[in-house]
Amino acid sequence: MSPTSETAQGGRRLVIVESPAKAKTIKGYLGPGYVVEASVGHIRDLPNGAAEVPDKYTGEVRRLGVDVEHDFQPIYVVNADKKAQVKKLKDLLAESDELFLATDEDREGEAIAWHLQEVLKPKVPVHRMVFHEITKDAIREAVANPRELNQRMVDAQETRRILDRLYGYEVSPVLWKKVMPKLSAGRVQSVATRLVVERERERIAFRSAEYWDLTGTFSTGRAGDPSDPSTLVARLNTVDGRRVAQGRDFGANGQLKSDVLHLDEANARALAAALADSSFAVRSVESKPYRRSPYAPFRTTTLQQEASRKLGLGAKACMQVAQKLYENGFITYMRTDSTTLSDTAVTAARAQVTQLYGADYLPEKARVYAGKVKNAQEAHEAIRPSGDRFRTPAETGLTGDQFRLYELIWKRTVASQMKDATGNSVTVRIGGTASDGRDAEFSASGKTITFHGFMKAYVEGADDPNAELDDRERRLPQVAEGDALAADEITADGHATKPPARYTEASLVKELEEREIGRPSTYASIIGTILDRGYVFKKGTALVPSFLSFAVVNLLEKHFGRLVDYDFTAKMEDDLDRIARGEAQAVPWLKRFYFGAEGGAAQAAGPVDGDHLGGLKELVTDLGAIDAREISSFPVGEGIVLRVGRYGPYVERGEKDAEGHQRADVPDDLAPDELTIAYAEELFAKPSGEFQLGTDPVSGNQIVAKDGRYGPYVTEILPEGTPKTGKNAVKARTASLFKSMSLDTVTLDEALKLMSLPRVVGADAEGVEITAQNGRYGPYLKKGTDSRSLETEDQLFTITLDEALAIYAQPKQRGRAAAKPPLKELGTDPVSERPVVVKDGRFGPYVTDGETNATLRRDDDVETITPERGYELLAEKRAKGPAKKTVKKAAAKKTTTAKKTAAKKTTTAKKTAAKKTTTAKKTTTAKKTAAKKTTATPPAES
Questions:
Q1: β-sheet bridge partners, residue 844
Q2: pLDDT reported for residue 148
Q3: Continuous segment of H or E residues that includes residue 749
Q4: How far apart are CA 942 and CA 936, in angstroms?
Q5: Which of 374, 373, 354 is nearest to 362 (CA)?
Q6: Contact by Cβ (8 Å): 212, 492
Q7: What are phi and psi of 239, to 5 degrees?
Q8: Residues identified as active-site
Q9: Which whole-number Å values give the CA distances from 556 to 19, 231, 549, 635, 641, in the listed order?
Q10: How many whole angstroms separate alpha carbon 159 and alpha carbon 588?
Q11: In terms of Cα–Cα distance, which of 389, 409, 413, 407 is closest to 341?
Q12: Contact, 312 vs 868, CB < 8 A?
């Protein structure tokens, strides 16, 4: 069958894909006999709460959405927000002669296709249509050669979904009870959080060591040129044959790990002075051939890593941009474990190598990249430009992040089919004798690239900003053994060892993949989850664990150690892949995981190492041994303890209500390794609690100043017995401090003045009262419903009636007020090439390049935000695209339709109205359910 108008005349074919964008692109490649519609993601899933579970289910089934007593049968429900779309698909199917399920070809796509088939219950022929690029030829090929639904893939995905549901819905409530409400645990997210916490623990335990060495600048005595420099810089390597200590020789405790010479400042300076007048000569020149092969084409994780390093895109933003490129036909499917290129792609890449770089850069044979990812299963090809001829970035018409990501993919793909880079690496050793008789040997390394090969097109980035990239040359003078050299300068250099670097999104993705934890296609959402949950926040590009995550990981390690064990999690992934391949059975495996070992359960599960599986149900049932206070307490030193409370972290010394007890809140954005004894003492010394300002001479009430959730404020203490509720309730006067005021300097007079607001300024000619008030967005005047901003807070007390009338005499400013000066300048955005600044907006500080605005996150600070972080926020905002406002339009449309229907057929209109009433009731119920779910529903389980 071919998707042409001729063949389509025999009937109407419905093609269902996941997204409207994908539908729009594919629609253009098929003939008029094809209707392409989107499911808009999953249409059916496990219930999000007990309220969504059908009434016939009770007890644990209602809570979990899985019937653990009957072979872990999942309870699927059509998502409330997808019911209208399902009806639309059913209506389209009723008018169709064939159904093509064209969802993505990975496990999740296969599961969506299966759910569509189960819900739509088609009575016409059903075909599974798969493709990994959206081009005309690929789509027509997919229609002409459909396959059957792969039930094994569906079962594998279902097993993962059930496992994640059991993990999330059983472990998360433990966190609610013992740490804080609304927390979440997940099979991969909890392990990812543990990785970040463990790295921070290493930083906290780290002790820096100081070491010194020498750097010598040596000259050959001849005039130099770019190919043969006249000088070289070498570092001291040995003294009397004993190697000089470098950073790698020290352990995390600051002690030497090996028998090397540890120079301190005094010894280093003394040696430098003793070598000042020494003669030096080349002792050896070692030259080796240098060869570097191209990097494999992108798979999901390597694309995320490079997009982070080179483009400043987080994993989530990277995948959002890649999704758009795929759906619009620019690249192949972006969730893949494979580095393989199809013959068509290899031919296209080789053609562009010859066209753009010449035949000298094209190897005789095409390069083949074998997938190194264990159990690779997603799509069958690497991420590359789509089609049998690659469009150059300039030919795409793309802009912004889409252009930059496409360019990255294009360069990497073309480079993968180019020749190796070749050259030479050289090591020169230079020796001399100090005036005190000690022998000193210096060493210098160089690299020259004689043929750049693939580096002409692409060079991979590095996680370490100080790392040298592959295409960097270090040319040394052309010297031979025995050549005399003059020491122009010898300096003593001090160094200190550094703690291990925090993870970035790129390095965390790399770590998860190397440990074989989770699926690469889920890493972006996992990192997004731990950021959204507050377990991790960003400082620049570094991922910093919150104190909350320390408490969560502490509990999981002590009481659910196996569940966050790296090997156990990787082993589970391996077992799930065995189930997917049909080498093990899902139900016995799930029974062992949830209920524990029972007789021959391990053997029944198939050839799976069952010893690593335990009973989750038993673990979450006995919580008596978990001391909530203990797992949320961490010693700082000198009797100071960091505790994670329900309202945030705080430091404490001594027992509550005991003499000398001290307590102080810890800033949410403080990195755990920065909480030292000295910093804790500073927190204790800061003023906290209530500041007694005196008595109001009018009311006789005590006036106090406090630091509240929304900043410092003053209020009055009402006498005991004052009614706080009901008809006669009295509300205490409260007022925020001005920006120019502080808790420890505000006076009673200032407090009374603040609490006198709003102030009546006077009345206009018509008798309408004008008041001066301090609001959330600053000081303003109010006359009836007409508000006008004031320039300063002081004007609240000084503005006169004439001045107020003059302001109201001016036409009300529409739109934006006069632009405020930026709070900080960050530099030029690499995408828009426009200056990026931080501004103070209505809802707080934000970064902008004049085209895109992105609000600073809770963990970002105006003073410390880096240019890279600013560019990243803008990139994420661009990737999301403009906010969609469809609700109002849809409502308006329905009204119009209803009117038209009423005009045509009264009976139909009545039926429609009745239907809508029912829908309205359902909507109300859904809203109530949603409100309940906010507090009761466990989080996403992954």
A1: 841
A2: 93
A3: helix 748-755
A4: 18
A5: 354
A6: yes
A7: -130, 120
A8: 333
A9: 38, 58, 10, 19, 20
A10: 11
A11: 413
A12: yes
Q: Which two tokens stand for residue 735?
A: 């007022």
**Is the separation of the CB atoms in 404 and 443 below 8 Å?**
no
> What is the rounded CA–CA span in Å between residue 179 and residue 159?
29
Cβ(879)–Cβ(852) below 8 Å: no
Cα–Cα distance for residue pair 74/45, rounded to 1 Å = 9
421 and 451 Cβ atoms separated by less than 8 Å: yes
Nearest CA to 35 out of 7, 16, 49, 22 is that of: 16
**Dihedral pair phi/psi, residue 837, rounded to 5°:** -135, 160
Q: Which two tokens stand for residue 351?
A: 């053609």
The 10s digit of each residue's pLDDT in 665-676 is: 888 889 999 999
Cα separations in angstroms, 935 against 173, 526, 636, 928, 942: 11, 22, 33, 12, 19
Contact 489, 224 (CB under 8 A): no
Per-residue pLDDT band at 752 (split at 50, 70, 90): very high
Model's pTM, two decimal places?
Answer: 0.74
CA–chain centroid gap for 739, Å, is 34
Q: How far apart are CA 772 and CA 769, in angstroms?
A: 10
Secondary element (H or E) of residue 702: strand 702-708
CA-to-CA dists, residue 827 to 9, 252, 463, 819, 867, angstroms: 59, 37, 22, 19, 6
Q: Which residues pair with 704 in a beta bridge?
A: 692, 715
The 3 state secondary structure assigned to 261-291 is ECCCHHHHHHHHHHCCCCCEEEEEEEEEEEE
pLDDT, averaged across the chain: 85
Which residues fall within 8 angstroms of residue 365, CB to CB, at 6 or more apart?
none
Give the span between the Cα atoms of 602 and 606, in whole angstroms.
7
Statement: residue 820 has pLDDT above 80: no
Average pLDDT over residues 168-194: 93
E strands, 468-594, are 484-496, 536-539, 542-545
The alpha carbon of 230 is separated from its chain's Cα centroid by a whole number of angstroms, namely 48
CA distance 24 to 22: 5
Give me the mean pLDDT over the 385-392 stretch: 93
Neighbours of 873 (CB within 10 A): 26
Strands 98-101 and 13-17: parallel
- Over 60: is that where the pLDDT of 8 sits? no
For residue 610, name the pLDDT band (cuts at 50, 70, 90).
very low
Q: Is 238 helix (H, G, I), strand (E, B) or coil?
A: strand
510 in helix, strand or coil? helix
Q: Look up residue 269 and give its amino acid.
A: R
- Return the CA Rg of the chain: 34
pLDDT at position 841 is 77
Task: Put residue 778 in one of left, alpha, beta given phi > 0 → left and psi -120 to 50 → alpha.
Answer: left
**Closest among 858, 853, 829, 828 to 839, alpha carbons compared:** 853
Q: What is the identity of the amino acid at 608?
A: V
* pLDDT value for 745: 86
SS3 (DSSP) at 305: helix
Q: Which helix (H) or strand (E) holds 799?
A: none
Nearest-angstrom CA–CA distance, 24 and 940 = 30
User: How far is C-alpha 71 from the chain's CA centre?
Assistant: 36
User: Quick check: helix, strand or coil at residue 239?
Assistant: strand
